[in-house]
Design brief:
The complex is a heterodimer of chains A (128) and B (239). With 128 residues, chain A is of the alpha/beta class. Chain A is 44% helix and 20% strand. Chain B has helices at residues 7-16, 33-47, 72-80, 93-104, 135-142, 145-171, 175-191, 195-209, 216-238, and strands spanning 22-25, 63-67, 85-88. In chain B, strand 2, helix 3 (72-80) and strand 3 (85-88) form a beta-alpha-beta unit. The chains are: A alpha/beta (128), B mainly alpha (239).
């Protein structure tokens, strides 16, 4: 399984990487520009990401914009859809509501191992 | 005596220590006194050991609300939130002492009535802060101790850089910049279980958002000390 973790915050990024690396190969992006390139490249190579986590507050774009872009690129370019998890702060209720149309779930920061694990189980990625 | 600046800090402190008495302002940023009292009662229900006086009951820390309103509605709301008593603000020395004696003295009698007469009270509070970082939880969460220490050291050096930015932003009155940096520190600190630093950053973030620059200077001084504490803690761990 291919996984893309998008977060500009070092600690959260490392934590997601270490927790998700047991489920597949993890790539990391720290801004929206980088994430878009990696996402597009993966589709081009015919090996799109299976799971993507997107921080809602990126330095160069909102996570929501990125999420919408990914959804539209996927509907145009591939039949396979990645599972997408938004990573949010607790104060982003409105954004979460908007994002819920395009993603498969969200987790709040600070990320807790158990919460992530529950979410992965819901999405059928983690067994248990 | 420990100090919390908002309800969430109070709840976190109760997670780490058993207190004999809690004095709780009802109006606080982040999490107010009512919500915090409720959370503390839930926490007690889940984790408190049996009471030494009555082993069939769990230990329960008396919580005294401090409120500017002496109305019965406020009193009822305090009691409904799980608090035991309340004193009115401005805090009067004798009323405070009476209440503290009543609840923290020998044997608790739950009675709710305290008024007050003017004179401002004030002993200087001393502080016994929790460890700068909950390393054990961090290692459990990340599942990898060297990685935790690496991330924590990165957080520390980022924190020192972010401190400079926040000091500069305060000097220039750029509270938006301050808020952003404080927000970033908070996220990283909480992720690595460096709660005190994260809570401090949260308080700075709050004041920046509310455009209250006066408290921020002293908070940044505490921030410096907290970074120092974290630094020596990490130095001990890495040996």
């Amino acid at each position: 399984m291919r996984i893309l973790v998008i977060d500009d915050e070092f600690a959260a990024l490392k934590k997601l990487e270490v927790l998700l690396s047991k489920h597949g190969d993890c790539d990391a992006a720290t801004n929206a520009k980088q994430a878009k390139e990696m996402f597009a490249q993966a589709i081009k190579e015919g090996k799109p990401y299976d799971l993507i986590t997107i921080d809602i507050g990126l330095p160069d774009a909102s996570g929501l914009e990125l999420l919408k872009l990914f959804s539209s690129l996927e509907s145009r370019n591939s039949k396979l859809e990645s599972k997408k998890i938004m990573v949010t702060g607790s104060a982003d209720a409105d954004d979460v509501l908007d994002a819920s149309k395009y993603c498969n779930g969200y987790i709040t920061k600070p990320i807790k191992k158990e919460v992530l694990s529950q979410k992965l189980k819901q999405l059928g990625i983690e067994k248990g | 005596m420990d100090i919390a600046e908002n309800g969430r800090q109070a709840v976190d402190a109760c997670r780490q220590h058993a207190y004999d008495l809690i004095l709780m302002d009802v109006q606080m940023p982040v999490m107010d006194g009512y919500e915090a009292a409720g959370a503390i009662r839930q926490l007690e229900a889940a984790t408190a050991p049996p009471s030494p006086e009555a082993p069939e009951q769990q230990q329960r820390t008396p919580i005294v609300a401090m409120t500017a309103n002496a109305l019965k509605d406020d009193r009822d709301r305090c009691l409904a939130a799980g608090m035991d008593d309340f004193i009115t603000k401005p805090i009067k020395r004798q009323a405070l002492l009476n209440t503290v004696t009543k609840w923290a003295g020998n044997g608790h009698t739950p009675v709710a009535e305290v008024g007050g007469a003017p004179t401002s009270g004030g002993g200087a509070p001393s502080k016994a802060p929790p460890l700068p970082m909950d390393l054990q939880t961090a290692v459990e969460e990340f599942g990898d101790r060297p990685l935790v220490l690496e991330v924590a050291n990165e957080l520390l050096s980022n924190g020192q850089r972010q401190l400079k930015i926040m000091e500069e932003a305060l000097k220039n009155g750029d509270l938006d910049r301050l808020r952003k940096e404080a927000h970033a520190v908070k996220g990283g600190a909480w992720t690595i279980e460096a709660r005190p630093l994260g809570d401090l950053a949260e308080t700075i973030e709050h004041h920046s958002r509310e455009r209250e620059s006066d408290p921020i200077g002293p908070l940044l001084e505490r921030f410096v000390k907290e970074l120092d504490r974290l630094e020596s803690f990490l130095r001990q761990q890495t040996g």
